[in-house]
Design brief:
This protein is mainly beta. Helices cover about 0% and strands about 50% of the residues. The chain has a single domain, classed as Methylamine Dehydrogenase, Chain H. It has no helices and 16 strands.
Length: about 180
């Protein structure tokens, strides 16, 4: 008996370990990041496989769409972040700078910057056009497992268990740090 609503599409590829399922909120696309180092993107309306992105040499831990949906960022166990063009699947940039696996990525609201968090206990900010690292934020005592920007793009927090939050607020090239705990 099928308990799924008829409006859902089933995706039937999933072999091996899936590290993350992702969707874009403004376009009908989603996919999975997996242990085989690939990213698979599907049309969420039809369930058709659109792209298979290959380029990482170890597992893919996290994937994020840019706000406009034109780029996709992927974090990997190979210590890199890759930027991909979503229409063609072309690898645009490889961002290298972390010393350990990269656990998470997030685009800024304007899509011009990318934050990455790693097992090396840092958050790095990147210019997505040039691929240049623009800032390294230190102060975590553990793996940075999640990063996000505030809606205005001025606050760049990094999160890690058990509920401790480090945040940075940027004002005129100055960075202020705050730490909070549950």
């Amino acid at each position: 008996m099928d308990h799924c609503p008829h409006s859902l599409v089933r995706i039937s590829y999933l072999r091996g370990v899936v590290n993350e399922f992702f969707i874009h909120t403004l376009m009908p696309a989603g996919g999975v990041a997996s242990d085989d180092g690939t990213i698979r993107v599907w049309d969420a309306g039809t369930g058709s496989l659109i792209l298979i992105l290959k380029g990482h040499t170890k597992w893919v831990s996290c994937v994020a769409f840019s706000p406009d949906g034109e780029r996709l960022a992927s974090a990997s166990g190979d210590t890199t972040v890759k930027l991909w063009e979503t229409t063609s699947g072309r690898e645009m940039l490889t961002l290298a700078g972390h010393n350990m696996w990269v656990a998470t990525v997030a685009f800024s609201p304007d899509g011009k910057r990318l934050a990455s968090g790693s097992g090396d206990k840092t958050v790095k900010l990147w210019d997505v056009v040039s691929g240049q690292e623009t800032l390294t934020l230190r102060g975590h005592t553990g793996i940075v497992s999640s990063v996000a920007f505030s809606p205005d793009g001025r606050r760049e927090p990094g999160l890690f268990p058990p509920g401790i939050v480090h945040g940075w607020i940027r004002d005129d090239e100055k960075t202020k740090t705050f730490v909070g705990e549950d």
